[in-house]
Amino acid sequence: MISTCISIFNKSRAALLTFMLLAIPAAAHADGLDSGDTAWMITATALVLFMTIPGLALFYGGLVRAKNILSVLMQCFSITALMTILWVIAGYTISFGDGNAFMGGFGKAFLIGIGPDSLSGTIPEILFAMFQLTFAIITPALIIGAFAERMKFSAMLLFTGAWMLLIYSPVCHWVWGGGWLGEMGALDFAGGTVVHINAGVAGLMAAIVLGKRKGYPTTPMMPHSLTLSIVGAAMLWVGWFGFNAGSELAADGTASMALAVTQIAAAAATLAWMFVEWMKHGKPSALGAITGAVAGLVAITPASGFVGPMGAIAIGLTSGIVCFFAATTMKRAFGYDDSLDAFGVHGIGGMVGALLTGVFAAPAFGGYGEIASIGGQLWIQFVSVAATIAYSAVGSLILLKGVDMIVGLRVTEDEEVTGLDITQHNEKGYDY
Fold first, then answer.
1. How many Cα atoms occupy the beta-carbon half-sphere of 415 within 13 Å?
2. Domain holding 160: CATH number?
3. pTM of the model as a whole
């Protein structure tokens, strides 16, 4: 009798434990929250923010002359603060709020209605909003590279703030927020059009409107600290895993493949730029190697969730070669002063990546994209590239002219000669 009772008790206990174990994942599935995805996205958000400060700040800061390094660091730091507030007020709702094919509505202004229990897929919506914020921070910060060493700090704040709300956010909605390019089938996994083409074209407009730096191109304007730039480039490379793999918004196989192809493309582009420069100039340079790496990272960004290793190598090699000539031969041929090659690397690299996504996303080339045909997808990619170029170019030009009328865009000649560290901030990056 006692043994029978013990047997019944053990069976009941086992059944209860089984029920409890089954109930736990069932409850997690019911509310949609996935703790693994959430943990990964918190990490990815930190990685992408790390790309701007300190990554991009050091990369760009080392490339300017010593009298301007503090101005570049200050620009990246202040953009981080400004975009955060603007994104909360209106940027997020314009990008991802319910609206029409061209922009989101204002139902989520000030992040209204987003609480700790609000979800976006399997992660908290507030986390999704903060992840997207890091993209809204780094995109206008990229434009700094085109106008470095000559724009007023006040003009920079006005321009980048307005640009994020009026140019970046609508394009973001077009592609990722339910807008017309996304509905058309444009493939942009992590920001080839939204981030890099958008910022690169804006940078080109800024370089043209502002004009050349005093003495350019006859006066040598060498980077004052390639050491800082290499450190910054290394931070960008590492942070880019959050940028691309994080854009899957889940800790899964697609995110893992995005991480892998990001590494592969960056490596291929580094070698491509290095060897082209070696053949053309007789020696490979550290500046060339890190610029090539960034070009590869840029180009793989739109493709990272759709291509395999074969596509990553092809995209990396192509971007390294094409961006080398864009940042050297093309810039000299057209005579514009893109100080740190924001257009040559981000604009051109983004175009290369966006278009080649239409090719290497195909299963025939080891890709994972759901495309009807390579020709059809190439046309869609071309439309998305052309639309982004046109909107960013015209919109940026209007904003630049408007800011010039309000506060003036460019520092005086004397201020430029003295350096922006002293004239804009009354401080020095270095105390010699």
1. 17
2. 1.10.3430.10
3. 0.91
